[in-house]
Amino acid sequence: HVQLVESGGGLAQPGGSLRLSCAASGFTFDVSDMGWFRQAPGNECELVSKIKSSSDGSTYYHDSVKGRFTIFRDNAKNTVYLQMNSLKSEDTALYYCGTWTDLDVWGQGTQVTVS
Predict the structure, then answer these.
(1) Measuring CA to CA, how many Å separate 9 from each of 98, 111, 112?
(2) Hey, CA dihedral for 32, 19, 70, 96, is it positive or negative?
(3) Closest Cα to residue 68, out of 36, 99, 94?
(4) Mean pLDDT score of the chain
(5) pLDDT tens digit sequence for 19-55
(6) How far apart (Å, rounded) are the C-alpha atoms in residues 86 and 25?
């Protein structure tokens, strides 16, 4: 079954950086589109970034993170990453990764707090 385990969150100062990791299992990772979502208190969950399967590799970024965040994947490790630079207070949220193989499955998330 699909499993996703996020890590790497924490407390960062404005302008700082964090790298999130999502270890995936239970499906064929390299042919799966992967993404990072976030939800801040009182806000709806939003798609932050997406990376297509390895045969394509194209990426999408929410306007609010363009130029600051980078999504990339390591198929040998079945892991997708989100490098977050120039962090802002509005990036504070619980971050989840998801797979378009099964968007009903979510990990526990990793908290990012920028303050």
Answers:
(1) 16, 5, 5
(2) positive
(3) 36
(4) 96
(5) 999 999 999 999 999 999 999 999 999 999 999 998 8
(6) 31
